[in-house]
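Task: complex structure prediction.
Instruction: return structure tokens for all chains below.
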Amino acid sequence: MVAGKRWMISTLVAMMVSSSVAVAEISSLSESDLEGVSAQGIQNIYNGGTTNSQYNNNEALELRGKSQQKAQGMEIVNSSSSAINANQNVASLVNGSGELTQKNCQIAKNGKNAVQSTTNKKSLRDQINDNGAVNLSDKAQMESSASVMVNAAKSGINEGQNILTVDKSKNLVLRQKNSQQASNTNALVQHVASEDTVMKQSNNNAAVQLNGDAQSKASALSIDNSASSAKNTGQNILYATDTENPKLWQENIQNAKHAKTMLEQTVTNGENTKEQKNNSAAVQANDNAQNKANGLAITNTAYSAENIGQNIMDAKDVTGNIKISQKNTQNAYNGGGKYEYQYVGTAKKAVNAKNNNAAVQVNGAQNDISGMAFTNTANSALNIGQNIASVENAGNLNFIDQTNEQKAVNKYTAPQKIVNGSADNGQNNNGAVQINNAQKNLASLASHNNADSAVNSGVNVLDVSGKPTTASVLTQSNIQTAENCGTHNQDVVNNGNIEKQANNNGKVQLIDAQTGTSSLILGNTAGSAVNYGLNIANIQTATNWSITQTAVQTANNF
Amino acid sequence: MKSLWLLLLITIFAFAGKLETVDDSELSDISAQGFTLNYQVMDNAIKNSLSYGAYKNSDAIRINSSLFKYAGVPSSLVDSIMISGFAQKDAFVPINAVNSAVNVPINIVFVMNSKITGGINITNQLQSALKPF
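Output:
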């Protein structure tokens, strides 16, 4: 298996072996540390003559051509004007006893503004304007492999991983913990004015745009593309064999706060346009992007707050008394600010225009993708908590607890105004999820496409097999609050003739999409508050057990 | 064909794995000494849990439809959702929500050859509120 080999290589790098106790790494960035990280960016582009192939990046991240194709490493991190912590603790313990703790304490704060202004006086062909955006095209990161792959622009990002294997040990107390705070605040303004004809142009403001074969066949524990967002990803992975009396703790405590100020994109076209894509606070995946990508978490996030917590444990041949605790405590807040405004005006005819404001649009892409958590998130607050434990050949399982406590709060004001002379094949999405001929055969525990929403997704899975077990207490719970409040108003003015136009405002639209999916949860959410709580227990040959599954869910949408 | 869809997950995902010693020569061009995590094993958890019980040997479409009903998606949501062509087939819990407040609790217990003395206690406390139209 090629993929397996890639994994082996990538995980070998920089791993360390601990023979006994305590592998911990603490890293936090104070505000003073970050002063130089995110400066205010102002970019003015003036093209007096004709423009042919021009890429303008302001506080943005763009990978094109074959950049990082087939790259391998523990971490592949590309950052533009972002605060990023990426920490990994990897340890192996043999013939040990006592306590071992793996812990990442991460604080990422990012702020300050980005303003991009582009003026094209004459006709243009092939122009990209990225402001606070992530744009991956061509074969960028295709077939690349890493534990962590991060592409971030204008974001506060924490990535924490604890990986531990234990063998032939007794009386152990093992703790894996990610404590993460990500915050992001900034105003992003993009003005693009073209006085003559426009042929092929992408304008991305606080957006993630994936094109071509970008990230296709990529594999990672976490593939994270983020634009102007606050995001935490915590992953605890524990594998224990032949162990007596273990106490196993896995925990993610995550707080993602995106304090919005203002987001504005205005695009004015004085003549005809053809193939223009305007994305603001949006995720747009096109072509073959992320096809056949796989990872524990694959997340594309624009102008949002998002937490991903994953606790994964496999214990085999454990004896004596066992305590297992897996917990995700998550807060995601995406709110405040003036508005998320998009204006696109075309004086004459707009052909094949795609305008996305606070929207997820997937065109043909993300097929055969697989991830335990797979998300496209635009202008939303999202928490994903997943606790997976497998226990095989245990004696007495005294106490097993799996808990997700999640609160997602999303506030938004997303007006979109589109004015066309005439239009042929136009797609206007505002606060919408639009999946076209895409995301086929995706496989995941939880797949979410979110626009203008507050979403909690909690999954607890316990499997006990093998030898008979006695006297045990299992509790699985999802305690979730989702609050969503806002308006998405769409104003489309067509002064001339229209040939085929889709206007999606606060809408989920699927066309020939998501067929053959194998997802435990598959959620497409626009302008909503949704809680998904799954508790699954599979117990075999057990005596004197108590099983409690609880869901406490509150969803408010105003 | 899709009945073992979770097996697909299992084969693709790979979490923690076997401990395996690698000698120095193998590592010479990697410049780190250590061990490999074999990301090809595990998740009995998901695999066993969802290929057992009532769902064993049933195909994904049946799983899909039964849980879709269980999840109780309000039919009024359909008004603002467009699903066209061969869209969205075979998912376990597919939920499409627009301008809505939705709670989706799903609790599943599989017990085989066991004596449960402490009871199986399943509790759902749900609240939702929606702005007036």
